[in-house]
Amino acid sequence: MDNGDPVYIRTTEPQNKPPACVCTFARLSRLRLLLKAAQVLLSFLAFILEEIVESCILCGGLYFFEFISFSATFLSLLILIVYCTSAYEKVEKDRLRTLDFWVTTVVGVLFFVASIVFAATNDKSSVETVAIVFGFLASIGFLADGIHMFMEKRKVKENKLENTGNTQNTPENQPLNNQS
Predict the structure, then answer these.
(1) What is the DSSP code string of 114-162?
(2) Which contiguous run of DSSP H or E holds residue 110?
(3) pLDDT score recorded for residue 54
(4) Where is the composition biased (Polar residues) (predicted)?
(5) Could you tell me which residues come within 8 angstroms of residue 96 by beta carbon, excluding any fewer than 6 positions away?
(6) 73 near 43, Cβ under 8 Å?
(7) Per-residue confidence (pLDDT) for residue 5, from 0 to 100
(8) What pLDDT sits at residue 166?
(9) Greatest Cα-to-Cα distance within the chain, rounded to the nearest angstrom
(10) pLDDT in tens, the chain (180 residues)
């Protein structure tokens, strides 16, 4: 009777386990995926270029830019990983979208401010100038994604209002057809 197989394996364990780490880009539209990839790439390039700066006179702007560019890279990569892996199935979708919107928008504004501060306090070296350009480009990417998410959310709300506001023609609101 015992052929070496565990007795309860057929009833206690699923036969077809999904892979532990599945990467898919289907959860984001093409535009959102491009914006997310641009955010990661541009903020990472801004961070790397600011790390190459050898010396500074007024270093406060450089340090602020360093902190924001690293934080932007880390947070945008983290959100992209959640969207593209099986971690997406474990989080509440509305909370993730809300978190994504606020993180993207706040990081975009802070990156823009950090780029302005760094531009005002830099020593005019070519590496600093290129880092500032990538900082502005990254902030545009973050802000464009934030605006895009806001417009999508607004469109969904308008569609919901149109669908719920048109209750006059539903059968419940029609007069009964009494033929006596």
Answers:
(1) HHHHHHHH----HHHHHHHHHHHHHHHHHHHHHHHHHHHHHHHHHHHHH
(2) helix 93-121
(3) 87
(4) 162-180
(5) 82, 83, 88
(6) yes
(7) 59
(8) 54
(9) 95
(10) 556 656 555 666 556 655 556 677 778 889 999 999 999 999 999 999 999 998 888 889 999 999 999 999 999 999 999 988 888 888 888 899 999 999 999 999 999 999 999 999 988 899 999 999 999 999 999 999 999 999 998 988 888 777 765 555 566 666 667 665
* CA 73 to each of CA 83, 108, 125, 176: distance values in angstroms, whole numbers, following the listed order: 16, 11, 23, 62
Q: Give, as one character, the DSSP assignment of residue 171.
A: G
CB 144 within 8 A of CB 36: no
- Tokens 């464009």 belong to which residue? 144
CB 139 within 8 A of CB 112: yes
At which residue do the structure tokens 């790439």 appear? 41
Q: Which of 93, 65, 79 is nearest to 35 (CA)?
A: 79
The neighbour count for residue 140, using CB atoms within 10 Å, is 17
Place of tokens 């823009």: 112
